[in-house]
Amino acid sequence: MKPILEIGNVTYSYHTLQGETTALNDINLSVMPGQFISIVGPSGCGKSTLLSLISGLIKPDSGSIKINEKKIEDSNTNIGYMLQKDNLFEWRTVYSNVLLGLEIQNKITKSTTETINEMLKAYGLENFKDARPSQLSGGMRQRVALIRTLALEPDILLLDEPFSALDYQTRLEVCDDIGAILRRESKTAILVTHDLSEAISMGDIVVVLSKRPGKIRKIVEIDMEIPNRTPISSRSSPKFKDYFNLIWKELTDNV
């Protein structure tokens, strides 16, 4: 099996009136189809910048990024992006919010609407199709945002701290929901988070970045050795603490 994403020797710098700041330096990473990658590191180390590079919103100074063996040249419509805010339009219903991406790309067909209806039913939102976002809980809003993104059938889903605005209990529940959805849909996902427990419980691999300029300090493969693993069940695994201590040491040694 070939990697769906290949990042080779990527370096990126910001240019301001005060001069040049290197955000990322010599990043190398391969991601296989269906993998869930979590990225952690100190504040300002370039985690979100890396997502912007993968999406094609910005270009690296050097190195290359390939998706399905094709070099990224511009912003990529095969990339799904979930941000800290769900960005649902309050004047649109749940159903019309989910349709938004398809509308913009002129992809509303019988097949795509059937897929949306199936996902709304599968993920507990069928009875809320006509509701407004203001009538939904935070967790339900995130599920709507995810379905809107998945409706476009992206090759890779980028998650930039999408759960950070939720309270702790809701955050755990939504992580479990979204983790299950992504595994059911066999989606490749890359999560940026400051929450180490979240990174370990959701990820197949945790990538640890150094302080700026961001370099990859360590890549940790996660194997909880439990059947039908979920984010919640991962936190109960005897191996969870070992992974936490290992990655925490990498982070604190780099302060």
From TrEMBL:
Pfam families recorded: ABC_tran (PF00005)
CDD domains: ABC_NrtD_SsuB_transporters
Residue ranges of domain ABC transporter in the record: 5-236
GO molecular function (one): ATP binding
Keyword Ubl conjugation: no
Entry keyword annotation includes Cytoplasm: no
Keyword list, A-Z: ATP-binding, Nucleotide-binding, Transport
InterPro entries to which the protein is assigned, alphabetical: AAA+_ATPase (IPR003593), ABC_transporter-like_ATP-bd (IPR003439), ABC_transporter-like_CS (IPR017871), ABC_transporter_ATP-bind (IPR050166), P-loop_NTPase (IPR027417)
Entry's transmembrane regions: none
Protein name as annotated: NitT/TauT family transport system ATP-binding protein
Organism per entry: [Clostridium] fimetarium
Lineage: Bacteria, Bacillati, Bacillota, Clostridia, Lachnospirales
